[in-house]
Write a structure and sequence with these properties.
Blueprint lengths: L2 E6 L5 H7 L3 E2 L2 E5 L5 E4 L7 E7 L2 E9 L3 H12 L11 E9 L2 E5 L9 E5 L2 E5 L2 H8 L5 H9 L4 H4 L9 E2 L4 E6 L2 E6 L15 H20 L24 H8 L3 E7 L4 H12 L14 E8 L6 H14 L5 E8 L25 H9 L2 E5 L4 H5 L5 H7 L7 H10 L9 H14 L2 H13 L12 H8 L14 H17 L6 H23 L6 E3 L5 H8 L3 H4 L4 H12 L14 H22 L4 H4 L5 H12 L6 H19 L5 E2 L21
Parallel strand pairs: 14-15, 14-17, 15-16, 17-18
Antiparallel strand pairs: 1-4, 1-10, 2-19, 3-4, 5-6, 6-7, 7-8, 8-12, 9-10, 9-11, 12-13
Helix pairs in contact: 4-17, 6-19, 6-21, 8-21, 12-14, 12-18, 13-14, 15-17, 22-24
Length: 694
Amino acid sequence: MRWLVGWSSAATGPAAGDESHTVLPVGAQLLWPGPDPLWAVGDWRPDEVRVVQADPETRLAVFGVCGATDDQLKVGLFAARGGALRHLTAWPGSYTAVVQVGRRITVTGDLAGARPVFHTPWAGGTAYATAALPLADLVEAGLDIGHLAALLACPDVPEALGDGTPYEGVRRVPPGHALVLRGGAGDLTSFEPTASLAVAAPQLAPEQAVEGVRDALVEAVRARLAGPRHVPDPDALDGLDPGPVPGMGPAERRAARGAPAPGVGADLSGGSASGTLALLAAGLPGRPGRLNGHGARLLAVTFNDRATQGGQDGRDAELERARTLADNPRLHHVVVAAGEEALPYADLESGPLTDEPGPSLVTAGRHRRRLLAGSADHFVGHGARQVLDAHPARLADLLMDRRRRHLLRPVTALAKADGASAQSVLVPFTVYRAARRLARMPYATGIADTARRLLERQFADEPVAGGAVDASLAALAWCRPGPAARWLTGEALAEVSVRLSDAAHRSPAVGRPGERRARAALARQAADHRVFEQAAEVRSQRLHAPFLDNQVVLACRALPDTLRVQPGARAAVLRSVLAGAGVRDLPPGWGAASQLTQAASVRAGLRGAVADLVRLFDAPLLADAGLVEARVVRRALRSAAEGAPLPLDGLAELVSTELWLRRLVARRGSCWTGAGAPRQKAVAGGVVPRARLG
């Protein structure tokens, strides 16, 4: 895991000077000293940490992949010195920028939330980092059980989560904001473009908006290709190549010893997002795999699940589309076949401790097998659905804009999605009525309604085994309980209900429901992607998700709602992106959804691991914390394994949170050293206390 950490000491006061100089992060690289130091911790590549300096008290550090030149970094530094932050977030790539101007320190996050910034009061000032656990170690924080309850009950509701983390006292900077520190005191400021309240901003024409998405994606991919090519260091891996092995080629031997291939690669699942990135990376000028002057093709990796019985037709169609896409002289296609050992919930005991819990913990081993066959720099299509697709609540936005005729095609597609039935003729009217109700519902009323539903345990209309219509109707709300809420205790739900009620009383002006729900869904996906990166991490490998870059997010937000809500809009936009880049020959069925295949693999994995999961909840830490009752979860696991129509993603969240708690409690050591280092770790004592949530 890689992170940066620093702090802003108080301008005056004895505590800051003594303690801050005797505490050092373990294995850190000091970027600048002084009363407000900054470190880079972990296996950062040399090109991932860039520092420019105007004078001894004015400097900028950029962490990650940034497409800006040194001159552009200097221009951004001078602009930030005058208070303009937008220059720091306008470059292609995915990065975190830290600016020091005298005693003022500015740390920028990103629009999606894939590169979060955390902060906490410490030693009379404020410490900040891009990981929450090191800050929890620094201040010896305990677990925030209320935040864990909100994370399970309403994972995509900002009103419930707030700016908290699983650690008491450690706060998160919201997406689209920067942390500004002056003499130890912190403040938050937004760097997002603001629209005028007096004059509505004109919407871009669909063709112009799609061109903007194309340009942003091309620049995002080019920023990765412009960097130096990295070759995994054999001395840093588990072992050297044992040489020729019967039945194993170089790629198989490399994957067996845990090393990615040198150069650049990409997922190629047959879907639209990963296929677009692979074709863009292979088609841009230059050689994606250039190493020491020798060219190599881009490595495209397809995962073939051979253990799942359900969804066979869809999986075969995806594999065939991937093979057709890979029929490109600039692509080298590798198919990773796996059986029951790669199903979700398999091998849960060997995963690393992540910064926060996330549903990716139950599928990390499955994805790690695919990534081991990938390259040192590997593209993934995470976030495409959230930035391009229209959230169902956007139908209410169209009604608020008096664009009723644009609802015809989406509601007609919903009526056809679940097949012909006696009720399908009523679907358009039902969806329209739900969208109109949401458009007329005040924000505070919608939040208060969800708080009431939590107290009364009303989860009957959650999309469990229903189709697209049921899911869309449930999503037509300001917010709603998550899939795991039905298994939480009454006191945990009451705590989350109080959080929501407080937010309803504040009731700020927050804009339209569809836009807000879409941003919340993107923030949740970005947080899950960050956990995925840590849980499935392969040493010497970097995962790149261009759809979560600032410039791509901004370009996608400029897409008109009338374009987003059309059936197949994501595939159509990406098809136009590829056509603009010169790729027009796409296989039939390109852009088809693959959710049924994923659900089949999750249920198969749950069925095979149900005995181990039941033992995991014999004496769960979640029950010790007062969040669940063990017998209720055990019964739900057995029922889901037998095929009961229960929300599988909710069970995955429960299992992953329990796993994360156990790994946190079993953790030894600290992120800090020195005479003033904390003597205890986060969650000191090794036992999660039973919380009082009432």
